[in-house]
Give the backbone structure.
Amino acid sequence: MRILLLLILSFSSIAFATEDVIDFESKKQEELYRVLVKELRCPKCQNQNIADSNAVVAKDMRVKTVELVKQGKNKQEVVDYMVDRYGQFAHYQPPLNSATLLLWVVPIGFMLLALLLLSRRSINKEDGLSVAPVVEEDDELKALLEEANVDVKQQKGNS
Amino acid sequence: MNKKILVTATPLLFFIVLLMFLLKGLFSDPKERDSALIGKSMPSFELPDLMNEKVIHSETTLKGEAVLLNVWGTWCITCKYELPYLTKLRQEYDVKIVGLYYDQNHAPEFGQYADIPSIRVEVVDMTNRLGNPYLYNILDLDRTLSLNLGVTGAPETFLIDKNGIVRAHHMGDVNERVWRDKLAPIWNEMN
């Protein structure tokens, strides 16, 4: 079991092993580059960032990212540069607009709905409304049981 | 009673919505992307002709007439299947087709250089065999124009109107279905 786990872990690291060695002027620029290549999405691939992809377009985007970062562009400027060319698809963090509104609103809506239902339920219990039918059913049940007892006695008497 | 219907109907409703969502996914093309360039003008560029590096093309070369810009390469297998149909478009519908040659191997930052003379030989050989739809080919060796156009690979096709505005962007090959359903309506509107 341990060996299996070790194997799985050693394979998973391969996906993150494509790191290029680039000389940046400052540590800050290098950090920005690392963040950007993880957040920018390869437009050719189904679901990979440009750091993990070896597609030609992902390489080109990495090269361009280096160039832009070295020019002193900030994160938003580089993201905008790619989004202007490859569309919103190229960025893993969708902004709030008419197309993505549902993504943001639906989870919040669900939570509010759940809260509403929960609070309604507890109010009902406090009113004691849900207790009343149980008593009625109890009476019915008693009547049924008595009837059944009579039946059993009768059957015993017959046999 | 109403409450009971609501309680039974909610999971069913939820299921139907989920079913429709998944059904839609079944028939959608995962490679389909909204192009960011539609309605914008062609990015500016200055690139040599594939066959003669002394001839320089720029965005002004493309202006004046509507063109179909086809991103391709001899290494790309789908492009091979596209050549005869594009040739037919040129001959039968008089579509002006310009090639943007996309080379995969050229990457100076990784020490890889494209062999231009052998690309020329391959291009001549392939277009002789399968048809030559191109008026001329622009050589985008370091893929800067391709990046500016939002090209993700080859083949890809753009329709550019006479004012140099990008009107359509198609990823994948152009065949009869794609031309009829997607590109021809825009092409006819442009001309």
Remarks:
- Residues 60 and 164 of chain B are 8 Å apart (CA to CA).
- Chain B has a mean pLDDT of 90.
- Chain B has six helices and seven strands.
- The beta strands of chain B are 46-48, 56-58, 67-72, 97-102, 137-140, 156-160, 166-171.
